[in-house]
Amino acid sequence: MVKESQKIVALDQDIPVIDMSLERSRVSMQIVKACETIGFFKVVNHGVDPDVISRMEQESINFFAKPVFEKKSVGPVVNRPFGYGLKDIGLKGDIGEVEYLLLHTNPLFLSQLSSGNDSSKFGSAVTCYVEAVKQLACEILDLTAEGLRLPPHTFSKLIRAVDSDSVLRLNHYPSSDQFLSGANLSDKSVSLPRVGFGEHTDPQILTVLRSNGVGGLQVAFPDGRWVSVSPDPSAFCVNVGDLLQVMTNGRFLSVRHRAVTTGHASRLSMAYFAGPSVHAKIGPLPTIVTAADQPRLYRTFTWADYKKFAYSLGLGDNRLYNFRSRVDEQDELGF
Fold first, then answer.
1. Which of 25, 186, 277, 296 could anchor a disulfide with 325, C-beta 3.0 to 4.6 Å?
2. Residue 258 CB partners (closer than 8 Å, separation 6+)
3. What distance in Å separates the CA atoms of residue 16 and residue 38, rounded to the nearest whole number?
4. In sequence order, which residues have a C-beta less than 8 Å from that of residue 89 and are 6 or more positions away?
5. DSSP letter string, 245-279
6. Once rounded to an integer, what is the mean pLDDT over residues 223-247?
C-alpha cells in the first residue's frame, strides 16, 4: 500500500500542459522549462491520429481479457524481461498490482508480431502506434534541442537509429475493488491506494505515455510533493528519463513517478520508452557543460552498460549515482 505519510496534493497541481500547435519557439521553451523544473509535462494538439490511439487501446483491452496461457504466448519466450508479466516487475523481486506486456520496437520483432491470423490485428495496431509515438517523441526531442540551442536532431537521432533500443509497455492495473474479496471491510487498509507500479525513474531518454480515462499516475516534485495526474484522453504524458538527465548534465530532471490502483475501474496505460542503440555512448554534451560553466556531473558510458546495471537493481534504487563523473575523466563523446 502507498504510505500515508507521503503528501499527496491536489490533482494536476503545477503540472505543465503544452499545446504543440502554438508557435514553435514558444513550445520549445515551454518544454525546456518543464524538463528543468519537474521533468514531466502533458502535450495536447500533438498530431497523433485518434484512430491509431483507439485501435491500440482496444487491442490492449482485448489482449488483457485473454486467458493467461494465451497472453504468455505473445512475445519472446526466454528473452526476459520481454513478454507478458503478472505482478513481478523486473528481476529483483519488485511486485505490483499490475499485469503487463513488454515489447521491443525493432522492425524485425514488429513484423513477426504482425504475422499469423490471430495476432495480425494486434501486431498491426502495435506497429502503427509505435510509429506514431516515435514520431511524437522525435518532435519533442527536436524542440528540446532547439530550446537548448543545440544542433538539429541532437537527441532524436539516437532513437531514429535503426538499432534503437526503444520499447513499448502495455500496463493493465485492476481496480482496487478486485482486491476486496474476502477482506474485512472494517479494516481501513482495504480502502487505501495500492501500489500498481512502484516509485522509480525511467532509464531511457524520454517516455511518452497514454492512459485511458482512469487515474492512478503520480509524479514526485523536487520539493517532496506527490502530485496525482488526471487522465486526459486528448493528451500524452511525457517524462524525462535518466539518459536525458545525463546528456543535459543534470539540467533536466529524470522524474520519479509511480502508479496506484484506486476506485472501481481498471486502468490501462501504454508507455513508449525512447532509447538509443545499446552501443551508443551517453554522457554530458560538451556544449551544455561549457555553456553552464560547470564540471561534468556524469561520466561517459554505453546504454548497454547502463541498462545492465539498471536491471541489477531494485525498481526504486538510484542508478545514476554510480555513474557520477570522476575528476580525471576526459570527454569521450563525438557530438
1. 296
2. 2, 195, 196, 197, 198, 199, 200, 217, 218, 220
3. 9
4. 95, 96, 98, 197, 198, 315
5. HHHTTTSS----EEEEE-SSS-EEEEEEEE---TT
6. 94
Mind telling me the catalytic residues?
Answer: 267
Contacts by 120-126, CB closer than 8 A, 24 or more apart: 121/59, 122/59, 122/62, 122/63, 122/74, 125/52, 125/55, 125/56, 125/58, 125/59, 126/56, 126/59, 126/168
Distance CA 280, CA 315 (A): 23
Measured CA to CA, the distance from residue 107 to residue 267 in angstroms comes to 28
CA separation for the pair 117, 99 (Å, rounded): 24
Helix (H) or strand (E) holding 196: strand 194-200
The Cα 252–Cα 286 span in angstroms is 15
Determine the Cα–Cα distance for residues 131 and 47; give it in Å rounded to an integer.
13
Q: What is the pLDDT of residues 95-141, one digit of tens each?
A: 677 899 999 998 888 887 766 555 689 999 999 999 999 999 999 99
pLDDT in tens, 184-202: 444 444 456 677 777 899 9
Angle, to 10 degrees, between the axis of helix 120-147 and the axis of helix 24-37? 90
The angle that helices 50-64 and 120-147 make with each other, rounded to 10 degrees, is: 130
Name the DSSP letter for residue 227.
E
CB within 8 A of 70, min separation 6: which ones?
Answer: none
Antiparallel, parallel or unpaired: β 194-200 and 257-261: antiparallel
pLDDT computed for residue 317 by the predictor: 86
Model pLDDT, residue 302: 98
Please report which confidence band the pLDDT of residue 328 belongs to, taking 50, 70 and 90 as the band edges: very low
200 backbone dihedrals φ, ψ, rounded to 5°:
-170, 170
- What type of residue is 239? N
d(CA 47, CA 136): 8
Which amino acid belongs to residue 61? I
Q: Which of 87, 131, 66, 71 is closest to 105 using CA atoms?
A: 131
pLDDT of residue 114: 64
Measured in whole angstroms, how far is the alpha carbon of residue 87 from the centre of its chain?
18
